[in-house]
Structures
1.
Amino acid sequence: MSDTFHSGKYFPREDEGMVHTAGSHTRKSAEPQVKGLPPWYFVLAGALVASFDLSQQFIVTHPAVAALPLVLVTAHVIVWFTVLSRRREFIRSVWRSKRARLLAAALFAVRMVLQLVLTRLVDSSAPLHSYAHLIMGLALLVLTTAGAWFDQWLILRTLNKDAEQTKEQHR
């Protein structure tokens, strides 16, 4: 069977999504508001992005810190398959959005700019050299956490506004 506009693939069929009452057809009420991801998830994502630089900062004095990125990836996978299993589709939509790709590109650019700026500053100030990875890691942690949370906020605002408008139209 070919997919046409009347097959139900693009538009619901006449009986789908309808509630029948005494001779009238009305649409079912809109879905409840979408809940976002918990704030700690974005901190975990930020820590994962910053983990390489943070581990590089402390690897000389604490060799076990080299495992930090691996530990955070493991924590991410465990959280992904347990706590956030019901929200996987939403997480995928948040991270696959155009703004998320822009955020990733911006984080890469920020890291490169920070590295260039810190390299120039290191030439004039020796103590700064010892904290270069720490500064980059903390900056990436903050930017990733704030950027991902803001991206979710925009998506939720749009989805929930649409749900509210749909609900108002059906009253």
2.
Amino acid sequence: MTRRGLLALAAAGGLALAAGCKPLSLRWRGSESKKPVLYLYPQQETALEVSLAWDGELTYAYPEPVRTRGLATWSVTASPDGTLRDSAGRTYPSLFWEGTSSPAFTQAEGFVVEPGGETVFLEEKLALLGLSERESADFITYWGPRMRTRGRCLVTFATDQYARRARYTFVGNDAAMVPDTFVRVYVVIGAVPREDVPEQVLIPAPTRHGFTAVEWGGTEQ
């Protein structure tokens, strides 16, 4: 690079610092969790309080929860078909939020997905992991285009890593509730490294029964 080019880069870094932005040479080493959505299927119509403790910063949520003491809490009435209704009568298919956290999720194992193979790959893996066809369609229409745009990518199902950062509690009819079935799917989509990565072994989801909660989300890095 010419001396003029180096001076231009230095000037750009200085402007970024002056504006309160990160300099061009720095990279944030965390993860942005995109579109975790939570579906709720009680056995009968139930008034629920759903609280999320997230080890990071909650950047957006819909519907907007009450935020106190590090918790985000939604108050909804849930129907067996998954419809959620707030106190104003507005209905939602799920609870949605996004947030940032660090450090970045690791990808010590996973699956290399080739361009054009995203849909078949996701349909197969999501069915194995317990998502319904409707939930899988919601997942694929969000993450499928992002995988296609990236091209060849490494996909890791990092639900265990994610679950340690995102913890839910449920209260129904003024009593603590624990879902009889809780299906959680979280993907990390990254670049394919030069070294071979072991193929991940996935455990099939249990059969749904009783009060069921289902969550999916992911991150790109």
3.
Amino acid sequence: MTTTLRPATPDDAEHLAALAAITFPLACPPGSDPAAVAEHIRTQLSPERFAAWAASADHTLLLAEAADPGEDLDGAPDGGSTPPDGTTAGHRLVGYALLVRAVPADQDIVAVVGDEPTVELSKIYVHPGSQGTGVASDLLRAALDAAPGLVPDRAVWLGTNEENARAQAFYRKHGFEVAGRRTYVVGGESHDDVVMVRPLG
């Protein structure tokens, strides 16, 4: 499987939202309220959200596509149809990453990274069928390479559920360290996150 990375465009929004609807529930801790997860996906991971992120100068949205002749971007047989704008024939979406440039509003985050503009690795997800193939590492490296273009000379931070040991191990492998905690709300349901930071250098 050959995978390529590229910046997303607003034309990719529908496919990114479809992938997010698959991958986000898999990252939620056991016992999460399915209705709360569904509400989060509906309101926070909609096609409109992805289109806005792709067009924003304060965001970097990267996607990974796998060469897979005979399938469209969602992985369904294309039947010879013309692929949607922003894709190429024989490729399917397998992952994405989102960086956000902002001044933290959450005081738990301010305590870790300060109150100046910084870069958050807000999202990085890979289709379950492509996990273990190196796509996640490729996306993370590309995101870290892109981060200085949003805010130079600042550490990158992220939040991940405190029960998600697999994700934390992955981030540690790429230089992140636990530096604090925060509360993250999913569809009105509060969860405990660790905040991880990748120091400069």
